[in-house]
Amino acid sequence: xxxxxxxxxxxxxxxxxYDVNARVNWLKGELARADETALKAxxxxxxxxxxxxxxxxxxxxTPAEAYKWFGAFLGLFPPAAIFWRAFLSSSGAxxxxxxPVLLCVGxxxxxxxxxxxxxxxxxxxxxxxxxxxxxxxxxxxxxxxxAWAVATGGAGGAVFFxxxxxxxxxxxxxxxxxxxxxFAVLHRLHARGGMIEGRSLWPLAFGVPGVAAALILxxx
Length: 220
Hints:
Elements: H1 13-57, E1 60-61, H2 63-74, H3 77-88, H4 98-126, H5 134-158, H6 164-190, E2 196-197, H7 198-218
Antiparallel strand pairs: 1-2
Helix pairs in contact: 2-4, 2-7, 3-4, 3-7, 4-5, 5-6, 6-7
């Protein structure tokens, strides 16, 4: 028996099986390449989606964590500006600078550590800014600012032979009364569900104390 073209016997299975196997192998190879291409495309889409969602998935900070960092920077920058104006910028000979510098560094470090600790407590007491009206948030932040100033300024000033605690609290009070309401309002504007993203917090936590320090340095 022969095929319709009369060129090959249908009984010649070897040639026919060879053609079928070759075609099947070719088809398998093409399917494998197609699957690999589709997998790479899917991975690329997944990576693009992850990059797009990264800001939304960034860790958010609670009010206690936000005010903790704000309190730390507020206890660092403005006191450093005050120490520079009061003790260091008007010092005389360089050989007399060592003790004032060490004293100011010690007071500044204490202000930063205590301000961070007390700031976290302020954040916990304020909680979700949506729980307060704007006026209520400002008033409560000012009351808590007094407590922060007394604790932070008093602790930092106490390094100055103990009696400096009174002066430390007095110098810290006006700074805190202005900075805390400003930060509270800005935090409320950027917070979502009481949480604030790090990319929104850091400019506020750095910026408000930084502006306060710049104003202190600019005073005549």
